[in-house]
Design a protein that fits this description.
four-stranded antiparallel sheet; Immunoglobulin-like; globular; three-stranded antiparallel sheet; alpha+beta
């Protein structure tokens, strides 16, 4: 960033701040980062990836990096023209009807993926504030209660955990903290889930919310078994977990996997 920006972040750290948030893209759609999905960026306009500069300068002072990304994009040709859109009175109805929010969602998800994979660790901030009367919005309060209930049982899958080099199975994500690998199940599998590359590397597995043990087996995928334990063609080194038939009653089920020494 500019020559004086280092002084800004040093002053912020000395004042006791621990993080700052930069608007990576606002409602107008202009991106302060390099994107493969649009040329409407600071890189194209000024030759500078301002998000990268911000992240580097922040981390040089030991500060955490936060990014704000607007879900709205009034410039994108597929974003819905509603009563709040600045072009609501100028876009012909036939053009507005041809807009496809599914295409816009794919664009949005792609840009968020660029931000979360190209700029190092980014902290999650929950934007919760009072209503005009100073009260917490009931929906926000309920969301916080639900998140709190989940976090009370699953905190170690998040706090102090980061990305993992292991490849997760479909409809799942990994976080990892030293020798603990956390399998976040976005969709509950039909009794079995197959984990590539983990055969011989796991000491123990359990559901994190209640500590119940999860059976782990290394099976030969060459011989098809009727119970789907080892479907044909399963890659060597795959570990199979046997899960309860009934999905646990938590927002997001997590399996805690304790790795052997080589997983450190």
């Amino acid at each position: 960033m500019s020559g004086g920006s280092a002084e800004w972040f040093r002053a912020a750290r000395e004042a006791g701040m621990r993080y700052a948030v930069l608007t990576a893209k606002h409602h107008d759609g202009f991106c302060l980062f390099d994107s493969a999905l649009t040329g409407y960026t600071s890189v194209r306009a000024a030759g500078r990836d301002l998000v990268a500069e911000f992240a580097e300068a922040m981390r040089a002072e030991g500060l955490r990096v936060g990014l704000y990304y607007s879900l709205l994009d009034w410039r994108h040709p597929d974003f819905t023209v509603d009563r709040y859109h600045p072009l609501r009175d100028s876009v012909p109805p036939e053009e507005a009807a041809g807009r496809d929010m599914a295409r816009y969602r794919a664009y949005l998800h792609g840009q968020v993926r660029e931000l979360l994979t190209g700029y190092g660790p980014i902290d999650l901030l929950l934007n919760v504030g009072p209503t005009g009367r100073g009260a917490l919005d009931p929906r926000a309060a309920e969301t916080l209660r639900a998140i709190g209930a989940w976090t009370s049982l699953h905190a170690r899958a998040v706090h102090g955990a980061g990305p993992s080099a292991f490849e997760p199975p479909p409809n799942a994500l990994y976080t990892q903290r030293v020798d603990r690998l956390y399998l976040h199940l976005l969709a509950w599998p039909l009794k079995h889930v197959h984990l590539p590359g983990l055969a011989g590397r796991v000491r123990y597995a359990q559901l994190l919310h209640d500590g119940s043990e999860v059976r782990a087996q290394e099976l030969d995928g060459g011989d098809h078994e009727h119970n789907n334990l080892a479907p044909p063609g399963r890659e060597p080194g795959t570990l199979t977990l046997t899960l309860p038939v009934v999905r646990p009653d938590v927002l997001l089920p997590v399996v805690e996997i304790v790795l052997r020494g080589e997983g450190h």
